[in-house]
Amino acid sequence: MGVEGTLEYLSDLLSSAKRKKKKQIQTVSLKIRMDCEGCARKVKSVLSGVKGAKSVDVDLKQQKVTVTGYVEPKKVLKAAQSTKKKVEMWPYVPYTLVANPYVAQAYDKKAPPNMVRSVPNTATVTETTVDDSYTTMFSDENPNACSIM
Hints:
It comes from Parasponia andersonii. It contains four helices and six strands.
């Protein structure tokens, strides 16, 4: 390797260290309270101004806004909050993805069709050995069960 090859190798090495890592395309979904077409236009114009946003889709019926592009969810959420509307990350998932879709925290009357709130698995009820002993205590199969009935 000659001097030119060494210089080229070193220049490539130094320039690659300064390159920024390219962001991945992300889709950010938000639930924003919108009452009319004017609200939807205002939200769409604000979110279109977010750096890296490629497309903004507004669904007025579901109160859902989807931003696609090289964006960060926190920046999109902050921009949406600047509209003075009630904003939260899209809380709904298809009910087939939730283990117990009818648990109190997951079921929501305002959810779109076939959707429930995303809840952590800690929201489900788990049976302990103490609960199990109460179940057997009042069971019909237990001859020593409570005979008050």
